[in-house]
Amino acid sequence: MPLFRSKSQRNLTKDDSTWSLKNLVDRVRKKNNSNLDDLMIIGIDFGTTYSGAAWATVADIEVDGVNVITSWPDTGAQEGKAPTELFYEHGKTMWGYEIPQEADPVRWFKLLLLKDEDQPSEIKGHEYLVKARNMLADEGKSTVDAIADYLHLLWGHVLKTIIKARGKNVVEALCFHVVITVPAIWKNYARDAMLEAAQKAGITATRRAGPTTISFAPEPEAAALASICERAENLAEGDVFVICDAGGGTVDLISYKVESTDPVALQEAVVGSGGLCGGIFIDQEFQRICKARLGRDWSSLSQTGISDIMKGEWENGIKRHFKPVTSSKAFIVKLPGEVFRGSGGIGLNDSSKKPIIKDGRIHFSSEDIEQTFTKSFNEIAALLDAQVHSAKKSNLTVKGIILVGGLGCSPYLQDYLKAKYKRKKIDVLQTDGMKPRTAICRGAVYKGLIGALNLLEHKSPVTITSTLSRLSLGIATEVPFDEDVHSESDKYWDDVEDCYYVSGVMNWYIKKSQSVQKDKPLRKSFWWTFESRHEYEKFVHNAKEVILQCDHKKPPKMENYLVTKFCEIKISLAKSFEQLDDYDSPGGKRVKKIDFDIEMVPSGASVEFSVYEGDRKIGTSGMGSIIDD
């Protein structure tokens, strides 16, 4: 086997010039090879319960900002998002608002991308997930197929919307860069599956203007870009904000410190966190109290009847606007007529127990509604407490909590958190209207713009300069045996080097919770040795290096069961055995040797590993996320 030896490491840095947005774009446009005007950035927020999209050219961002899609098929209302639901019938696929009320759609299928072992226990056996899994099996569809079906229909609507606004000829001349947001707690395999689904959906289909590129952004990072940067005039250096992205399924938290305000530069302050305590769990609680009140008559409801209550009366009514009251005000839910024809014998008027039913309507008290929010809000508060505490341990003081996401629009959530953090003098900020609900897809567009400017070797005026790694990343190497460090049982004699060696020694590039500076590559040098042509040719046939990961707080010094594969780098070696450099080993053997470097390039919440022989790149991993939990 070729030996894999560690030599040294060095840091590489790039120029750090910055300009204001307008000056920056002016300078970029003066360059003959700049094609910013030919670029359309499209952000897609594919959510557990609702999905949204936004788009912009650089000119849009300079003048009017980001265009958010608010008009959807089969709904006359202006909505920031469409339901993430599918319905298959007679070979036809329906999505979002066009699904008939009486239909029983596939829901929550996004969560099926996670393997069973990565599904939290409280969600694994949920009826929606079980039903989604069974429905897709009946249709002969995989999870990737279902997501591709949804993205295909969403993408078609996005294109129609953009063409309607700009004209077909203009749009066809623009190159597309699509940024899809993913939960911070997702593993890399789930993100890979999302890429496969996006490609199957036709998002990367051939276009006259050139290839469509896709990148990914963590949902809380996108939310931060939209939320903090749109408040740029109110920022001060040293401010620390927690972004609370409270969505349908997950609640993701990420904390940023403002490094500078002109340009806006943010660094992750403490390690982000997340949990499954979003809006769907509040919906579950409301459905539970409705079932408890109606008893057997709940089972007499059709899908239309359940939808009338859960979507019409609850999601689009009480839940969105609820704030606790101390008066006797009732929160009224109109019951479908079919419930009164059930076997339970419930009447139009029933005051035998609370909440009472009057004129075919349930009269819930404020306390009844409050209890549906209690568990989720307590869990959100616990996540926030942990962020605030971690910031304090790092000698940082949180100035504000910014609420985004569907549940982040809740006035009750804002009031609840305001009361909780009043003594700590932490502001709880919430934008009016659709902005909290559409923050992620808007932020995805900003993320795409930043990426475009970086490709043109200009520093964006809005940047996230560093993140905190949720993983330790490194490689397993062979090093000379040291009796003060290594176990006797691990050593073996190496004839080439004429000494004892130990294999499986971890060489960590970054460790968990370590700050990762954007665009500051770390390169380490190694070498392989080969004693024969046969050994070399066998290696060349399937040459690869494996990058390893560990999500424990203290990564081990030796490769063990805590260490798993992060990614694999396939290596292309063009030299023949005879062309390799000679190496006279300490053991008196002349062997062949290849010196090579493995470089880690951070980019926000992702990293890319590349292998170099001299100046020639001989392998690359592609981007991988460092925000997995």
UniProtKB/TrEMBL annotation:
The lineage of its organism: Eukaryota, Fungi, Dikarya, Ascomycota, Pezizomycotina. It comes from the Eukaryota. It comes from Gibberella moniliformis (strain M3125 / FGSC 7600). The keyword Oxidoreductase does not apply. Gene3D superfamilies: 3.30.420.40, Actin, Chain A, domain 4. The keyword Metal-binding does not apply. GO terms for molecular function: ATP binding; ATP-dependent protein folding chaperone. PANTHER family: ALPHA KINASE/ELONGATION FACTOR 2 KINASE, HEAT SHOCK 70 KDA PROTEIN 12A. Keywords: ATP-binding, Nucleotide-binding. This is Actin-like ATPase domain-containing protein.
